[in-house]
């Protein structure tokens, strides 16, 4: 049971090729970051994630008795990365007897841009598409989602954004999708968009942990067995099966 007023959470995000880890206490309003570790490179998450967690715990002087819960980035993002992150988070939560909390990786990217009035979080979805969501800053300075997670080509995203922008508004593009397609999107937005600085394009586990801290305070934990990543789009295997079934149904009706 969660008893800490400022719960100490181990935060894990593997939605992108960069493994992001943090130890955070409390929420974005009253919290602190006890330690962070980001690692990108050639190795897969499955080969180094537990090692990196061990390094973070040891270097920060944190024991499992200190940890009040596990926070995990739900995606969308890399299917393999999300499965590894979720499986690891579930295993640690179960082994330590701690609750599990999930936060959308798009929400995390938007939270990193707290000062921007309008933010579009974008993650590369491959196949010349992006996962995206639009956020507006509320009176308390929080980024609130205006759309659900979408998966669409950058050109279609630009059209959707222009339809949602109010007079004289401009949007900040952030995430791996912004890094990849920003140069293509900016002309389509007609000067009403800009790309965030490079250091903001990877999801921050510190922002994830502090956002999850709010869920911990409210008791909004994930089911340790049924909790699932936010895939948004079906896997290649699922899409191929759907196409085959549709093709078979069409041939059967001839």
Task: State the shape.
Answer: globular
Helix content: 25-40%
- Percent in strands: 15-25%
What structural class do helix, strand and pairing data support? alpha/beta
Number of strands: 11
CATH topology of the largest domain: Nucleotidyltransferase, domain 5
Can you describe this structure in just a few lines?
Helix content is 38%, strand content 23%.
Topology record:
Blueprint: E1 8-13, E2 19-25, E3 32-39, H1 45-60, E4 69-73, H2 79-96, E5 100-103, H3 105-111, E6 118-124, E7 130-137, E8 143-145, E9 150-152, H4 154-164, E10 171-174, H5 176-188, E11 193-195, H6 205-218, H7 236-252
Parallel strand pairs: 1-4, 4-5, 6-10, 10-11
Antiparallel strand pairs: 1-2, 2-3, 6-7, 7-8, 7-9
Could you explain how this protein is built, in words?
The chain is 38% helix and 23% strand. Residues 237-243 have low confidence and may be disordered. Strands 6, 7, 8, 9, 10 and 11 form a 6-stranded mixed β-sheet that branches. The protein has a 5-stranded mixed β-sheet with strand order 3-2-1-4-5, with helices on both faces. With 254 residues, it is α/β, with parallel strands linked by helices. The radius of gyration is 19 Å and the shape is globular. Helix 3 (105-111) crosses helix 6 (205-218). It contains 7 helices and 11 strands. A hairpin with a 6-residue loop joins strand 2 and strand 3. It has 2 domains: 8-105 and 203-234, 2-Layer Sandwich (Nucleotidyltransferase, domain 5); 113-200, 2-Layer Sandwich (Nucleotidyltransferase, domain 5).
Which descriptors apply to this entry?
alpha/beta, five-stranded mixed beta sheet, 7 helices, six-stranded mixed beta sheet, Nucleotidyltransferase, domain 5, 254 residues
